[in-house]
Write a structure and sequence with these properties.
Distance between the termini: 28 Å
Oligomer: single chain
Strand content: under 5%
Shape: globular
Mean pLDDT: 93
Length: 183
């Protein structure tokens, strides 16, 4: 149910209906939170999804609450790079830059984790505008060259989340793509 609500929210975001998108993204975050207790151990995607949905909904109070939830679940101590990604996102939302940078640096070298995403996280934490610009452009290019998307909704959602986090850090990079919503 969280995935379906997220897909609806992303589709509305792409049409420019930010209010409708925010409502559906909040539903997605709530469903992922609700289902986490019954999920198998290591279901870090639910925490990531909840944090990202709140960010995309421009609900920073909710994002901070879900970020603290990820920290409380000990995502930073996960063996999985996905768990550490959840913790890194959480730390960025909470403005804990130094801790986020350490985690991002660790997942940057983990085989199987998208290096450009980890680079973007690290560069946001380090407040490195040039590094971030190159990394987020690479992430966007990876979306533009795909043929498959989550829930079949062609949206560069990771880029949108990175851009929102970067703006909170004072980094503003202009990007254009058919996979990004209208300005």
């Amino acid at each position: 149910m969280g995935n379906a609500a997220n897909a609806t929210g992303l589709a509305l975001l792409m049409t420019g209906d930010r209010e409708g998108a925010a409502q559906w993204l909040a539903r997605a975050a709530d469903r992922w939170r609700d289902s986490y207790a019954d999920a198998p151990a290591g279901s870090w995607g639910r925490l990531i999804g909840a944090i990202e949905a709140r960010i995309l909904a421009d609900d920073w109070v909710g994002a901070e609450r879900d970020a603290q939830w990820a920290i409380d679940e000990r995502a930073a101590e996960a063996e999985s790079p996905i768990g550490r990604d959840a913790a890194c996102l959480a730390l960025l939302v909470l403005g804990r830059w130094r801790e986020a940078r350490v985690l991002a640096d660790g997942i940057r070298t983990h085989e199987g984790f998208p290096t450009d995403v980890a680079d973007a996280l690290a560069f946001i934490a380090a407040e490195d505008v040039v590094g971030y610009t190159e990394a987020v452009e690479s992430v966007l290019e990876s979306f533009e060259t795909r043929t498959e998307y989550l829930e079949d909704v062609p949206v560069a959602d990771t880029v949108l989340v990175l851009q929102a986090l970067a703006r909170r850090r004072g980094i503003d990079v202009e990007l254009e793509s058919p996979l990004l919503p209208p300005a």
